Amino acid sequence: MLERTGTMPATDQRHALSCQGLVYRAGERRLIDAIDLDFLSSGISTIVGYNGAGKSLLLRLLHGLLEPSEGSVLWNGTPLTATVRHRQAMVFQKPVILRRTVLDNIRFALASRGIHDRAQALAALEGVGLSGLENRPARLLSGGEKQRLALGQAIGCKPDVLFLDEATASLDPASVHAIEQIVLAASAEGTKIIMVTHDVGQARRLSDEVIFIDRGRVLEQAPARLFFANPKSGQAAAYLEGRLPETHQHPSKN
Ligand SMILES: Nc1ncnc2c1ncn2[C@@H]1O[C@H](COP(=O)(O)OP(=O)(O)OP(=O)(O)O)[C@@H](O)[C@H]1O
Ligand SMILES: [Mg+2]
To answer: In this structure, are residues 194 and 210 in contact, taking their beta carbons and an 8 Å threshold?
Structure first.
């Protein structure tokens, strides 16, 4: 079984993805409020924080699905291009599945990245444990199988960066375990993983580093072991203990 040690792989420690002065505004609200981050080009970075903190918005900005109001996202120091985005993939909580067979779903995803190799599609299915289901209509898969298919579509493209937004929420423990193993294997093969999860156990199991977001701001970016042993902010400590955010507590409870 693959396991995380909480230390970064020694191979490649370059900063591949970064953002500077990132702001995302909706009306008067700064939903993402001046975020600067550098991500190493390997390892698993996990973004955690309360509901509404801005985690999904941040992932979408980093992947170029949203245009920032201010600031920039850089790949090796230069702005994101279509080519760079083609080398990235994202998996959402609810997988997007086409009314086609399992294999055609994978082939479609790969073809959209310019990959027309049937063997690579079959290998991607095997990698996520869906061999034998090639010809099944994908809509008939269970929730866990659909999520594996979505991961197969993403990882099958051999992306430089894989974004996961609560990819294992609402799955049973066996499916969560299977998907965590797939993510660890992709990381071991060199894909940078940037994921959001509310599953603290999962964050502990997988993360090399943790980024804690609160109200659109980064309160902490720390190696996973340090973060879990000794969170620096009161908000992160409260989150890890399952308490309400400090500003949201009922006055009578204080
Ligand atoms: N397009 C939008 N226009 C206005 N407000 C938005 C928009 N998208 C998100 N928001 C708001 O921005 C805040 C951050 O949203 P986001 O989805 O990033 O939160 P999150 O940290 O992913 O939360 P959760 O843990 O619930 O998924 C929320 O208050 C949300 O309602
Ligand atoms: Mg979210």
So the answer is: no
